[in-house]
Protein 1
Amino acid sequence: MGQNSGENIDKLLLLGDVEAVVSVAYSPKLTDELARRAWWCVQSGDNARRMLERPAVSQGKMGRCWPRIWWSTCRSKPVHIR
């Protein structure tokens, strides 16, 4: 799927489709608010890493909150070692 550079990338989130959320996450026009909404739709580490590449996100509210989210997620999952 190609990057979406259109003006209405926020409308893609209304589709509720995983591929649409990925398109938003990879968009060069991603904002901190759109990153928050995309994270709410699909919580994916790949999407989060891609969104954090954007200065608007990494320096915004989501950039400050993601480390806490990941830490709490990692601690809450059981680890099975074989």
Protein 2
Amino acid sequence: MGRTRKELLASLDSAELTAWQAFFDVEPFGPLRDNLHAGIIAAALINGNPWRRKGARDVTPSDFLLTVERPRQTVAEMKAALAGVRPRRKRTRRK
């Protein structure tokens, strides 16, 4: 916005602040929404890939959201999460 927080608060009246809060309630913006958009794209790419194993669990956008409270995964949980993804085959060169 090109202004400091103090300058912004000095120029923003109560009505405008209330309007921005109402707009945010209807159409959220900022880093949390950006993470959700990235999660939607990542889930679509993974779920749509043809090399996924049959029966693999579909991922959701929330699987990709950055959260602080999320506990660390164990090795067994990581292996289970990756079980549905097949490695890429090496390409052979045609002569």
Protein 3
Amino acid sequence: MTLKVTVAYAAPGVEALIPVRLADGATVADAVAHSGVLGRLRLDAGSLRFAIYGRRASAGTVLADGDRVELTRALTADARAGRRVRANATAGRPKAGVAKPNP
């Protein structure tokens, strides 16, 4: 029996969804290799991580029919730092919908 899986990668300005057919028992690494996405998009395999439908997976994870293998990149921004910058930018401004008491 063969498995039908999709290898997915997205970054600013690029999106790739590559359907792949593999033999039973195939792994995430097999799907990525058969998709050719690393060479086609010139991706650095060492900086990528894997997920299956958003759940972290390793290269040796065995696939099931219909899985979507996602290639994930490292975060480029720290979420906490971003919230801090936004909070500091709005500090001192009245919040929308909040009335100031009359003096």
